[in-house]
Each structure stands twice: as structure tokens, then as C-alpha cells.
Prior knowledge:
Elements lengths: L1 H36 L4 H4 L2 H46 L2
Amino acid sequence: MMRLVGWIFLLIGLGLMITGLGMALQGYVHIIHEAVSNPLAEGAASDEPEKAQAGAMLRWAIVGLAGVPFAAVGALLTLKSRLNRMRAKRLAAGR
């Protein structure tokens, strides 16, 4: 049971991290795309596109960061269940 709960926490944490960091990276790519596609645009001369995307990128990075504790707890639970299983096999073998 602990192994299943560990895997669930690990997958939720990894999903949050990948989603958050992927969306933050998408905001960065959007900034680069806008600057490359029309470098002489009025918005490219000011900092407005970057400021607008910076808030969204920070929010998604925080979402990705929120997945770290879930992934850590899941990794620890799966490791603990693996060690318990190995110890039980060793005790059953009589070593």
C-alpha cells in the first residue's frame, strides 16, 4: 500500500513540475518569438511584452516548484517500501 501511495505522490509531483516548468518555458518562447518575428514593432522597443509574460512565467514556475515536495515524499515512500520488501525477502531466506 505504501508503494502505491508513493507512486501516486511521485507522479503527481512530477506532473506538477513538468507542467509548471513547461508552461513557464512556453512564456519564454513566446517572448523570443515576438522579438524575432517583428523586431521593429513598437512593443518590442519597450519592456511591456516582457513584463506581461514575466508574471505568468513566475506563476507557472511556482506551480512547478509546488510539485517538488510531492515528488520528494513519493520518492521517499517508494524507497522505504523497496527497502522493507528487500528486508522481508532477506528475513524469509533466513539470512
